[in-house]
Design a protein that fits this description.
The protein is an alpha+beta fold. It contains three helices and four strands; from the N terminus they run αααββββ.
Length: about 110
């Protein structure tokens, strides 16, 4: 009887783990512009990296090209980086904002 119970628990646990692992969306699909930092952390966890910088370049190559002109020169940027399934995600918080202003996903293998 114990053997069957242990076997049943093992099968159930394996099924749940496989189901959970395959059902989650990539991080870049779970994060939306306008979410707060806390909402993002609750949804996808702490970032792999955080960087504080100042916009000092007029041009940039990469997925940021879509919004880079909208950020004023000299703006303070807090950039959160996530290694995501199939690429890398950068989240941009501008001038101390608690809400996500921009996101940029760079698919793995794409050269800009």
């Amino acid at each position: 009887m114990k053997t069957y119970t242990i076997l049943l628990i093992g099968v159930i646990l394996a099924t749940v783990l496989v189901g959970c692992a395959g059902s989650s969306e990539p991080i870049h699909q779970q994060v939306e512009v306008g979410q707060t930092k806390q909402e993002i952390i609750e949804a996808v966890g702490e970032p792999d990296s955080k960087e504080n910088t100042v916009k000092n370049a007029e041009y940039i190559n990469g997925p940021e090209e879509d919004f880079w002109d909208d950020i004023p020169m000299g703006a303070e940027l807090e950039v959160w980086g996530y290694e995501d399934r199939g690429g890398h995600l950068n989240l941009y918080f501008v001038d101390g904002s608690d809400r996500l202003n921009y996101k940029a996903f760079a698919p793995e293998g794409v050269v800009y």
